[in-house]
Amino acid sequence: MATLMNQQKHAGGFIEEWAARWEEEALADVRSITEEIVPRKWNSFFVTFTYRHRYWPVSIEQVGPDMGYRMPAGNRPLVSIAAGPGSQGRAILISLVKTKPADPSSCFIVSAAQRVWLKRNENGVDETLEIEAADGTVTLLHLCPLQRHKEAP
């Protein structure tokens, strides 16, 4: 009988812990704000975004049905981001500083861009830019605002 009560206590503790973690994650999702940027506003949005975040270190991740997961850039300063015409519809060009000769390309193109979202944290600070292409590929540009460069390279 005592063993059964201990098991129930242990299970109850697990459930309480799980419920508390779930509530914390749910609140974090509510506290962060995701805003979709409509295509007709991309040009002005990217000009403003570039102005606010030029030379901030960023990481780029890409996930897609054909490519799987890859991280083509990590902790490299942002130069600019812009939208324009591309061979498959609208394209978005992300330019980064090439910090070392061994760094891969300093330009990344998202072809046939369809949707753009900006995620902000609970304080309204920009965190992640998400770009979805027509083929289902998602490009994530993560900002590191607390480690902003003091000077332009």
Span of the ends, CA to CA: 70 Å
Biggest sheet strand order reads 1-6-7-8-2-3-4-5
Could you give the order of the helices and strands? HEHEEEEEEE
Examine the secondary-structure arrangement and name the CATH architecture of the largest domain.
Distorted Sandwich
Q: What class do helices, strands and sheet pairing give?
A: alpha+beta
What is the percentage of strand-forming residues?
A: 35-45%
Low-pLDDT runs of 5+ residues are 3-9, 147-153
Number of strands: 8
- Largest sheet properties: 8 strands, antiparallel
H/I helix tally: 2
The tally of domains stands at: 2
Mean pLDDT: 79
Fill in the CATH topology of the largest domain. Protein Yojf, Chain: A
Helix content: 25-40%
Rg of Cα set: 21 Å
Question: What this model shows, in words?
Answer:
The chain has two helices and eight strands, in the order H-E-H-E-E-E-E-E-E-E. It is of the alpha+beta class and 153 residues long. It has two domains: 1-31; 34-147, Protein Yojf, Chain: A (Distorted Sandwich). It has an eight-stranded antiparallel sheet with strand order 1-6-7-8-2-3-4-5. The radius of gyration is 21 Å and the shape is globular. 16% of the residues are buried.
